[in-house]
Amino acid sequence: MPGRPRPRSLAAALGVALLIAAAPGCGSEESAPSRAPAEAPSGAAPAGSPYWVDPQSDAARQVAAWEARGRVGEAQLLRRISERPMALWVPGDDPGPAIRRAAKGAGAAGRILVLTAYNIPHRDCGQHSAGGAAGATAYRDWIGAFADAVGDARAVVVLEPDAVPHIVDGCTRAAHHEERLRLLSEAVTRLKRNPNTKVYLDAGNPAWIPDPVKLVEPLFKAGLGRADGFSLNVSNFQPDAAGREYGARLSEAAHGKHFVIDTSRNGLGPLPGGGHESWCNPPGRALGAAPTDRTGDPLVDAYLWIKRPGESDGPCRGGPAAGRWWAEYALGLASRASQ
What we know:
Strand content: 5-15%
Number of strands: 7
Number of helices: 10
Low-confidence stretches: 6-42
C-alpha cells in the first residue's frame, strides 16, 4: 500500500525542523521550536509498555510550541501521541546517527527501541512514498550500517513495509521479485546477528491480500523462517480484531509464526465506504490501542505504533508530502481517541 512515511533526513530525524506549514489551518505561526521541549519526558514509556518514548519527536515539540502559545487544551490532547512510543523510520541516506541517538536514549531509559527499515529498491511502485536504495549493493550497505548502529541495543525492527505484499499483488515488476526477496532474506540474516534484535517482516493488512496463504511462500523466501514473525496493518486502519483473525490464519499457514499489529490510527477503523485513496489521510480517524507487549493473545507479540500518528500519508486531502508532520491531523486523531 502507498502512503508510507518517507524516511527523513538526519536533520529531520533529530527534530531540527518541524514542517507543518503545508497543512490547512496550520501556518508558520504554529511551527514548533527547534529546541527540545522544556520538560521533555525521560523516555520512559507508559505503564504496560516496554518501549522507548522519543522526547524529541515532532509531537513532543508541537506540545511545547502550543503550550508556549497558550493552546493548553490542545497541547494536552496531543500528549496522547507525544507520550506514547512510536517507531523511528530510519533515514535512507546514513542510518547510523539517528539510530545511535535513539539507542542511547532507549538504553538510558531501560526501554526497547522500535525501528522501521524502509529503503528497499523500487519502493512503493513509484507512488507517494517512492524511492529507496539505488540498487542491491546500496541496500546491502545501508542495512549493514543500520544493523551496526543497532548493535547490542534491545530493538524491534519492522522490515520493509509493503515489500512482500507488493510482490503478491503484482505492483512490483516481476523483474525485481527475485532480487527483492534475496535482499530481504539477507537483511533478516544480518539483523539477527545482533544479540537483542527482533525482526518482523511486513505482511500487509487484512484488506489488501484477502487470502493470507498467498503470502506464505514469498515471506519464507524473504527470510521469515529466521525472523521473529511478521507485521500487520502498518500505516493502515484495520481494526484489531480483523488483524488478529487474519494474523492467526497466516500464522497457521506459516508454521506458527507470531506477529505484531500497528494500532497507531485504527481506533475507529477504516474510512466508511472506502473509495479512492481511502488509506490516504482519511478524515475522522482516531488513535488506536496504546503500544504494549501485553496483548492477551499468544500469537500477538505486541501492539505497536509503527506509523507515527500525525505524519502525512501523502499530498492528498490537503496533506503535506508523505512522512511530513501535520499538526492539525495529529490533533484530530488524538481528540477522537478513546484513551
